[in-house]
Write a structure and sequence with these properties.
This protein has a two-stranded antiparallel ribbon with strand order 1-2. By secondary structure, the chain is mostly helical. It has 13 helices and 2 strands; from the N terminus they run H-H-H-H-H-H-H-H-H-H-E-H-E-H-H. The radius of gyration is 23 Å and the shape is globular. The structure holds heme C (2 copies). One heme C binds next to helix 4, helix 5 and helix 8. One heme C binds next to helix 12.
């Protein structure tokens, strides 16, 4: 019977489409009062929600324990423009943790994803070229449109500071305070591993049905009905696989932008043309612009195109709005002390 409740709400949303009166069901429809009461909130089978999982409390690696000393050092490095070749861009310049962990202005060819929850993803980068955040960030810093800072120069820049020499001794006693790409990566990795954003969605998944509003539940029903969860599922509602952009219908390349072949650039396999990491949808209401190229600023428009090009479905405005309302329930905040400017 629970399933029927969901079908009911979706039918109610679909009625907004106009054009042709909905066929009245004489057998199953309950008596409806003439004052048009609000549609009842849908309920969900545990089976339907099993594709999702709450955010873990901790995403620690056994070989990179999240000690307070290491996390504090990672934070200092994260905000330090001296890490870049020009000594002018910090990690925070492109992944602003005082805001949404991302940036509104794009500097390179690709859109900077939010750093919040990123360390938990199955891979790093839009093309999934990295696995562990500790390793990814070192290679990332060397990229010309990021920090242009090769390994040797990076280590030199950090080791030149007596304050860092002291902080590495405290954070890496087993390594005798060695300043290497390994320890720099571990400190930055430890910091980013702490930037998790638990939300009302996690409470809902843990069994608190009141954690989502009725409108958000209707949006979740629409999200499931549109099959968004075939790609956006798991702990991060994404960040668990790569998929072709335009799998149901070719994606239009945004005007004025060079074509980005995505994962093909990493593997040179034809099947990987236009394949990208499915991004997390946590905090997506706050991280405009969207997509690997930052080509889309409206979340509504993005949801509409996702349905058309990834699922082969046309969504009416009411459903799009419902889904965006649901996505709002995925908003959460990282620990305050970790995101205030040092
Ligand atoms: C000039 C802007 C810029 C700077 C500076 C920068 N990043 Fe990035 N970052 C990006 C862009 C753009 C991407 C996406 C790259 C891609 O997919 O090819 C990215 C991707 C990432 C990712 C992968 C996230 C994911 O969800 O896939 C992590 C982690 C990350 N950056 C951490 C850092 C850290 C740590 C620093 C400092 C050492 C840093 N970034 C400096 C722009 C920047
Ligand atoms: C076949 C897999 C697939 C399905 C199904 C799918 N998506 Fe996506 N989604 C992706 C991929 C891949 C990207 C990243 C594409 C890119 O950046 O070029 C993405 C990106 C997004 C983004 C942008 C996030 C950001 O941070 O840039 C949103 C929002 C989104 N999807 C919502 C949805 C919704 C809502 C649905 C259901 C209507 C849906 N998706 C269905 C694969 C999918």
């Amino acid at each position: 019977m629970r399933k029927l409740a969901i079908v009911g709400i979706l039918a109610a949303v679909a009625c907004d489409k106009g054009g042709g009166a909905p066929t009245p069901s004489t057998t199953t429809a309950p008596a409806v009062a003439s004052s048009a009461p609000a549609a009842p909130a849908p309920t969900f089978d545990p089976g339907q929600l099993a594709v999702f999982a709450p955010l873990p409390e901790k995403i620690e690696r056994p070989d990179n324990l999240l000690t307070p000393e290491k996390v504090a050092l990672g934070k200092t490095l994260y905000f330090d423009p001296k890490l870049s070749k020009g000594k002018d861009v910090s990690c925070n310049a492109c992944h602003d943790v005082t805001k949404n962990g991302a940036s509104e202005t794009q500097r390179g060819r690709r859109n900077a994803p939010t750093i919040f929850n990123a360390a938990g993803g199955f891979a790093q980068g839009w093309d999934a070229r990295g696995t562990l955040v500790e390793d990814f960030v070192i290679a990332h810093a060397a990229e010309p449109d990021v920090m242009s800072q090769g390994d040797k120069a990076l280590v030199q820049a950090v080791a030149a500071s007596p304050a860092y020499v002291a902080a590495f001794k405290k954070a890496f006693p087993d390594e005798k305070g060695a300043i290497t790409t390994d320890t720099i990566g571990k400190a930055l990795g430890a910091y980013t591993r702490k930037l998790l954003t638990p939300s009302r969605w996690d409470k809902f998944l843990a069994g608190d049905a009141s954690a989502l509003t009725d409108a958000e539940k209707a949006g979740l029903a629409a999200f499931l009905d549109a099959n968004c969860m075939t790609c956006h599922a798991g702990k991060y509602i994404g960040a668990a696989q790569t998929q072709k952009l335009g799998v149901a219908k070719p994606w239009p390349v945004a005007p004025g932008r060079a074509e980005d072949l995505g994962r093909f650039e990493v593997t040179k396999q034809d099947v990987d043309r236009h394949v990208f990491k499915v991004p997390t949808l946590r905090n997506v209401t706050k991280t405009s612009p969207y997509l690997h190229d930052g080509s889309m600023s409206s979340l509504e428009e993005n949801v509409k195109l996702m349905a058309r090009h990834q699922v082969g479905k046309e969504l009416d405005d009411a459903r799009v709005k419902a889904i965006v309302t649901f996505l709002g329930a995925l908003e959460g905040e990282p620990p305050k002390d970790l995101v205030t400017k040092p």
